[in-house]
Write a structure and sequence with these properties.
Layout (H helix, E strand, L loop, with lengths): L1 E2 H7 L5 H9 L3 E3 L2 E2 L6 E2 L5 E3 L2 E2 L7 E6 L28 E2 L8 E7 L2 H8 L7 E8 L4 H9 L2 E2 L2 E2 L4 E8 L4 E8 L6 H8 L4 E9 L2 E2 L8 E3 L2 H12 L1
Parallel strand pairs: 9-15
Antiparallel strand pairs: 1-4, 2-3, 2-5, 5-6, 7-9, 7-17, 8-9, 10-14, 10-15, 11-12, 13-14, 15-16
Length: 239
């Protein structure tokens, strides 16, 4: 669900502020009913008219990016660092990242202008899975892996159960490779979880976003999602 004035602005009706004035003037109908409340939220299936003319909504775009290191998961950056949006060339629609990956984290990142789907993919109540491959300092025992899977305390709150697999241990470099699948998305959660068991993260890659992977995409490359993939995402969060 997105605010009505935001949808109007994206459709090119007017600026967001001017769209609010148009709503308050009673010139907007949602599914045939006049709406004057600025807090009104609409879904992609709602019919919206302005002065009884149906608005043409911005076409939804879904992009999967293999995020490289040293890029910011925002639409702009006051420090003029490179953003993930700047990597997506040739897309006219105003897309934005679904959730965030840290500056030094790589891997699967979805960008879209579908606010309703974006909300469902990121809100904890929908428990959307995200899988990471982690390189950490030190050897992680099976016992410590089980602790992570069962949940650890972060900021006074226990993390939700996760799936953890210890993939390998390299003795010369004293590093462990592990895979972890989460169904929640706190800030810096993976790094903080491994830090809490005494194994700081040296490298972090999001391997999968739900069923979406970066297979076939080099670092910095992207592709459009297929209609079938979009329907799969919608089905996952709606089920």
């Amino acid at each position: 669900m997105e605010r009505l004035q935001k949808v109007m602005a994206h459709a090119g009706v007017a600026s967001r502020r001017k769209s609010e004035e148009i709503i308050e003037q009673g010139r907007v109908k949602v599914n045939g009913e006049v709406v004057k409340e600025l807090g009104t939220k609409v879904s992609k299936n709602d019919s919206i008219t302005v002065d009884d003319v149906l608005i043409e909504r911005e076409q939804y775009v879904y992009v999967l990016l293999n995020k490289p290191r040293e890029t910011i998961s925002t639409t702009d950056d006051p420090k003029n660092r490179e953003t993930v949006v700047e990597l997506i060339q040739g897309v006219e629609e105003r897309i934005y990242p679904v959730g965030r990956l840290d500056w030094d984290t790589t891997g699967a990142l979805l960008l879209t202008n579908d606010g309703e789907l974006s909300h469902k993919l990121t809100h904890p109540s929908f428990e959307f899975p995200k899988t990471y491959v982690v390189k950490t300092k030190g050897r992680i025992t099976k016992k410590l892996g089980n602790e992570l899977a069962q949940g650890v305390m972060l900021d006074g709150q226990k993390t939700a159960p996760a799936k953890v697999n210890i993939l390998s241990y390299d003795r010369p470099s004293d590093t462990t490779i592990a895979r972890i699948t989460l169904h929640e998305g706190r800030n810096h959660q993976v790094k903080n979880m491994f830090e809490s068991i005494g194994h700081p993260v040296e490298k972090l890659t999001r391997e999968r976003f739900g069923f979406l992977s970066t297979d076939g995409l080099q670092s910095g490359e992207w592709r459009f999602l297929t209609p079938h993939e979009v329907k799969q995402l919608e089905q996952m969060v709606n089920d």
